[in-house]
UniProtKB/TrEMBL annotation:
<protein>
    <recommendedName>
        <fullName>U-box domain-containing protein</fullName>
        <ecNumber>2.3.2.27</ecNumber>
    </recommendedName>
</protein>
<keyword id="KW-0833">Ubl conjugation pathway</keyword>
<comment type="pathway">
    <text>Protein modification; protein ubiquitination.</text>
</comment>
<dbReference type="GO" id="GO:0061630">
    <property type="term" value="F:ubiquitin protein ligase activity"/>
</dbReference>
<dbReference type="InterPro" id="IPR045185">
    <property type="entry name" value="PUB22/23/24-like"/>
</dbReference>
<dbReference type="InterPro" id="IPR058678">
    <property type="entry name" value="ARM_PUB"/>
</dbReference>
<keyword id="KW-0808">Transferase</keyword>
<dbReference type="GO" id="GO:0016567">
    <property type="term" value="P:protein ubiquitination"/>
</dbReference>
<dbReference type="Pfam" id="PF25598">
    <property type="entry name" value="ARM_PUB"/>
</dbReference>
<comment type="function">
    <text>Functions as an E3 ubiquitin ligase.</text>
</comment>
<feature type="domain" description="U-box">
    <location>
        <begin position="8"/>
        <end position="105"/>
    </location>
</feature>
Length: 115
């Protein structure tokens, strides 16, 4: 997990989240695992409105949904699902997120967010 100082530096860098997101599913299984863990830490402990909007704009939310669809390992898939579930209410009405994202995973998002 990134330390508080590292998270702060990552969030201050204009391409920080984009670089982490880009490495998921493109470099290696280990890079995907670490990238999802970093996004999980940021989304759990540093999730401001700006951060959540940036995650949408750079495609991190879409990338997390892809993690659920490919064989990335159970722990990585569980972590990606936890991030999506944690902020589903913020992202559900965004035009950047396809409706099918939440509709196609009713068991993971079964708290009535989409209907």
């Amino acid at each position: 997990m990134p330390t508080r100082r590292r998270k702060s530096k990552l969030l201050k860098h204009s391409a920080g989240l984009a670089i982490v997101s880009k490495k998921i599913l493109r470099v290696s299984q280990v890079a995907s695992e670490r990238g999802v863990r970093i996004l999980h830490s940021i989304s759990k402990f540093s999730a401001t409105h700006r951060v959540l909007q940036e995650m949408l704009q750079i495609g991190a939310v879409t990338k997390l949904s892809l993690v659920l669809q490919v064989n990335c390992g159970a722990k990585t898939m569980k972590t990606a699902g936890a991030i999506l579930k944690l902020h589903a209410r913020s992202w559900k009405s965004s035009p950047c997120v396809p409706m099918e994202l939440f509709d196609s995973y009713p068991s993971r998002f079964s708290d009535g967010i989409r209907g």
